[in-house]
Design brief:
Blueprint lengths: L2 E6 L15 H15 L3 E6 L4 H6 L1 H10 L6 E4 L2 E5 L5 H8 L26
Parallel strand pairs: 1-2
Antiparallel strand pairs: 1-3, 3-4
């Protein structure tokens, strides 16, 4: 099973989707994280203000913070490998990294009839 770890900057709550002015990027990312979980991906999200010990436990996150300070956050790891730092990834990136499909099931294709129209011999 694929595992994703997200190391978030200090925020007012675990997702940052709270308060009077919510960042739309955080709202989208929260939806993307929920989507990953529903697709069977194991997702762990750690906040700097709520779980600072997790940032210390991960040597690579510690090195990022030492080099770039909080500008390094968020940091996203997939199966232990750093995929992005300093920004939230898109759903397409998450899908590529985890192998989860983002496509909706396709609709059946209507074949053209011999008369050239999609409706057969009559007008559409």
């Amino acid at each position: 099973m694929t595992s994703v770890e997200i190391y978030d900057p200090a925020m007012c709550c675990s997702t940052g989707v709270c308060g009077p002015s919510v960042d739309p990027a955080l709202t989208q990312f929260a939806a993307d994280v929920e989507w990953l979980g529903s697709a069977g991906v194991e997702v762990h999200r750690f906040g700097l203000s709520t779980e600072p010990g997790k940032f210390v436990e991960n040597a690579e996150v510690g090195a990022l913070l030492k080099d770039k300070s909080e500008e390094a956050l968020p940091a996203v790891f997939v199966d232990g490998a750093l995929r992005t730092s300093g920004r939230y990834p898109t759903r397409v990136e998450l899908a590529e990294w985890t192998g989860v499909s983002t496509e909706r099931p396709g609709l059946p294709v209507v074949e053209q009839s011999e008369s050239g129209g999609c409706c057969g011999g009559g007008e559409c």
